[in-house]
Here is the input.
Amino acid sequence: MSAPLSSRGGLTRRLLTGLLLLPGAVLAQGRPTTVATAPNVGGFGAPQTVTSFSPVYNDDSNTDMQAYSILYTPLIWPSPVITVDWKLGLAESVHYNRQRTVVTVKLKPRRWTDGTPVTAADVVYTWKLIEQQGRSYGLYGVGGMPYVIRQAQAISADTVRFTLKHPVSEHWFTLNALSQLYPLPAKAWGQHSNTYFRNHETDMQLMRVSDGPYRLDRFVPGRYARFSVNPYYPGKLPVRHFELRFFTDWTTQFSALKTGELQIGEIPTPLYSARRLVAHLPSYANAPGKAGFYPYEFRMIRLNFRNPKIAFMRDETVRQALQMTIPQQAIIDVVFHGLGAASFTAVPPVPDTYLSPSMKALDEHPNREYDPAKAARLLDQDGWKVHDGVRAKDGKRLEFTLLYLTGSRAQTEEADMLKASWQKLGVMVHLKRMPQATLLATVRSGKSEAAMLLWAYAPNMYPSGDGLFNASGVLASGFHDAALDTAINASIQPHGREALWHYEALLAKQLPVLFLPVPGYQVRHDACLSGMRDYLNPAAYIAPQALRWKTSGSCMQHS
Here is the structure.
């Protein structure tokens, strides 16, 4: 679960020491019982510490989501192609009435770690916790939560019914609203207040009653979180112990992968040339025909239309010219070492489940869209003439400052390539690096002009644009278009797939942000592990219960 605005990269490098393996971590036949990994493997952010184990009270980070999804099971778990994975979620079925205004969810049989059953009343309790928070809820508005739900009722021990305020798209409500509901133990938690929960987000005593595949054994902030199998979880789990280990940067994490301290890890993009050091570890690819792992996200240059210094960005022709001169294929080849996918809209290119046929065609041939000569003609026709190497019109120069992340060599290289390409067009760009916290604070303050950011779809996995680019969306930043609002609203109504495609096309034309290619990542794992496709999800979910140990002698086949 990413923050609404996020920028990824490492922090200050330091060594992590003092981690001890569990006694008896290897079975007699040589198969280890423990799998260790860093959080956020696959480009989801820094391998930082967990700050909350609560699905309802948290800082909305991927790290936290990965941790609490081990302890608690959401109603809806996304599949590798961003549909519903009925194996891993708690919902056995989801049924909509003909009007798409009543949703009935039946739960699988499941028990809390205290032996009591998980019930529909626990689902209703979770929804009420969200409703009580109002706008202080970290995901308020995503999937219409909680306000699109008029009433939540437990109509039996294992069935909950949601009555909605208006008809909805099944894809949108299931993947964006129901996905937020992690049933919490009403009997164990019911006596506590909102204030108590917010002050005990990493309290192991509070988290002792859970229903996920693993229970929390130990948590040392900044070092590791250790989990062991929940004896009430159905089925046999070959991985008996699972550990999330925290690092200050991806370079240190890579060292741990190289030495075997981690069984699953990432080769950071700047260290791609060092991949030979882990050549014995298989690579995990999550999309047919593509090497590497791709998170479900889009990357952008966010434009601040409210800043009078870049009033020229309100001119659609200027934005189109800038987009035409983003060398996406060159960035993929040079910066991402060939691991990347072009993108011209906010619906992710990998997996391409919700991408329209026309947008797929654009993504497959990015060099056709890279046209500096056409961009120059557009600006000439629009009255932007070159004076001393910089285009100007009515005394205003095409000049702006682009913010990007400190400590990310890949972003530095990408920003340099953008600056060089736009300079040839006659656009002056000043580059400014900032630490992540400072960059995001500058963007949110309204003082930025342009900034390199990304949006990761979790848990709003149906990429409708609702809450992003409509009038009140977090990415609108002063941009508003009635036709775009109409397309977004239509995409969340019943049978809205064609409206979603129309929304994608409007974004590609109107460009409320400039779109950048999506990088792929080198994820490596122990050769004896299988089940990686279900374990690591493009939406950042991890499922250690899906991991298996291979029985072959060599263990060198890819999973």
Q: What stands out?
A: The CA atoms of residues 431 and 444 lie 19 Å apart. The chain has 16 helices and 23 strands.
